[in-house]
Amino acid sequence: MGSNLDQMQLALKTQLQHLNASTYLVAVSGGLDSMLLLTILKSLKAPICALHVNYRLRGEDSDLDAQLVEDFCQQQQIKLHKYCVSDSEQKALKAANLQAKAREIRYAFFKEIRQQYPNSVVCTAQHADDQIETFWLQLNRGAGMKGLAGMQVLSNQVFRPFLKWHKQDIMRAAEELDLKWREDESNNSLVYRRNLWRKQLLPELEKQIPNLKNSTLLIQKYFGNEVAAQTQALNAYQKQFKLSKRISLKELSEMSVFQLIELFKLFEVPSHIIQRIPELFTAVNGKALEWTSENQKQAKLVFYEQRIWLFLPETQLDCPFELEIENSSPAETPVHFDLQTIYLDAQKIVGSLNFQALRKEDTLFPKGMNGKKSAFEILKENKIPADLRSSYFGLFDQEKLILIPEMKLDKRALAGEHTKQVLKVSIKKKL
Question: Are 338 and 281 found together in one domain?
């Protein structure tokens, strides 16, 4: 089987081959776990840089941690990126939830450095015991399925190669290397909830449940697999909703609670609003759930004609359509055609064709009708809520509205029997 160190090196080598990142940015605190990770990656000749954050919370000890990391990187010829918190950040750390604020600072720094290295990943040294602690912490907080799934080996460009290894495995590997590291005394303080679980609560539970650790990891694996499966199924809904800002009640009814929450979180709908969404399932047209966005503007979910519409006044909708234009001959022009493929007289088109958001003053001379009609009136007839009509897109040339996709086509630019040059225009929904 080989030593702990051999097994960890082999496992990590295999993982690196699959990742094939250009640079591995290793978060190094100076503690046992991160120093071992940095050392193994160096031994595997992986393209690495080290990242260290000095929170300035433990006086000289914090500086000694930083010095250990700096000395090691210098000896091993590893590029090191350092961040030392400012006085204002230090005050914020002491005033807020320290661990949450420290994480915020740390990951902001990681993100900044990642931008300097294309196709890079951040490597952290969380291990199986951290994973177990996370499960019980999340369970204690009443977390849902995503929280109970714990950390993934790779997520959001953060790579955690030690998640299958326990602390004792890491200790044995470090001893084989005669590795130097520093102990953070704050890890022994029961003021922090994680330490309380690590030092007291989990050891007591293990006395009652000898197989607690393995059972916890199996449960996490189940939740992780379930989250992955449901997230994959949700992707299609997310793409559609991102483009159109509307979704039918039928589609919502097919979703799990997890999927529904994740869908609306995409647009930062607050949790208290998400909890009230079932109210819209039996509502009358125009019923709305309103809240104030981060930009201090009113946002809302509106029920209208068996759909829920998301209205964000500060956000410009993406156009959900794209064009394909090609020349065609008059002989190939059909007498009847649908609104997905239209045939226009090139000489009646002014400038280029493009999609623009509709305005109240826009009008159309609909094919098959006499006279003109307001674009907004056509949207109303097609059950588009008033709040969202100005975010709906039409196809224009430089002078006029040509088409409201899936609704009405203007007859003024259509190819006819006297047309000499035909434009075949295909309107497709973006995937």
Answer: no
Give yes or no: residues 173 and 303 share one domain. Answer: no
CA 343 to chain centre: 40
- Cβ count within 10 A of residue 47: 14
CB atoms within 10 A of CB 110: 21
Which positions ≥6 away from 75 have C-beta within 8 Å? none
Same domain, 255 and 333: no
Range of the domain at 385: 321-429
Q: Can you give the pTM of this predicted structure?
A: 0.66
Beta bridge partners, 342, equal 425
- 114-125 pLDDT, tens digit per residue, is 999 999 999 999
Q: Are residues 275 and 352 in the same domain?
A: no
Residues 180 and 52 in one domain: yes
DSSP 332: G
Span 44-98, pLDDT tens digits: 999 999 999 998 888 888 899 999 999 999 999 999 999 998 888 888 877 767 7
Distance between CA atoms of residues 73 and 65, nearest Å: 13
